Please model this.
Amino acid sequence: MKFFGRTKTKKVIGNRKMASTLLIIDPQKDFHPGGTLAIDKADEDSERIASLIRNSTEKDGRGSTIERIFVTLDTHHKLHIGHPCFWVNVDGNHPEPFTLISSADVESGLWIPRGNLHIPDGMVDKDIFDGGFNIDGSFDLKKHCVQYTKSVEKSGHFKHCIWPEHCLLGSPGHNVVDAIRIALDDWVASTGRSVVWVCKGQNLLSENYSALSAEVPVSRATEFDNSLYQSLQLSNRLLICGQALSHCVNYTARDIVKKWPPAEMSKICILTNCASNVTGFESAGDKFLKDMKKSGVRLCLDSNAFD
Model:
């Protein structure tokens, strides 16, 4: 992951407003109605997020109840391990979106990486993930995919899912949805602060639901981003929202909570009416919210985020 526009925040004491951070996960057009991986209620979520941002700034321009805004961007290439074009069956056909591919499927040859894939240097670091390397040091893509899918299964999160192509770098669907983009621009103009942009998902050979680490780290760049975590941890209040509740909001928040001081869990708030599930994965979103509440994280609406 890479992030840009990083700023430091100050701890605020006394009667002054607390330093708050808004973390918006993947508010991109492809996750909204009309996009390639549209979430039914994403437009309504984005309107509420935009309203929260607009209402955070003081009319005299002197300040904002939101001191920092981080925005993550799902950022993929066409030949990503989670896209149909990466895989073929014995007839040379690609899997349909939402196909689940198991390690047994790869081992048996039901689904294998296409034969003419050219993997750029640096995608896999043998010291991080050596599952695809032969004894002589050569890289075997099918072997990598077998070990990768086994690692995904072992994690217990999801089986490896093939998604519709989405958030392709340079495509319209990669852009931030208009309602939030306009609100962000107004916030920047009013406060004199810059948005921190976090790109995730560029590695072709691992899925990246969390903004802090890949599902299966395969290189230094896909390991846990401690620098980003430390920046977020400076917050006296961390508001988390965006898309999708069942996936990227879910695993970004889980990565944060794993390291967050237990006595300070109430500083984190999931904005439950500003994030929605991918259709068919509602149980994952429900479990996520139950787990967060159990850990001491607050579940809030946009209307009481600062209560």
Summary: The first helix runs from residue 42 to 56. Confidence is low (pLDDT under 50) at residues 5-18.
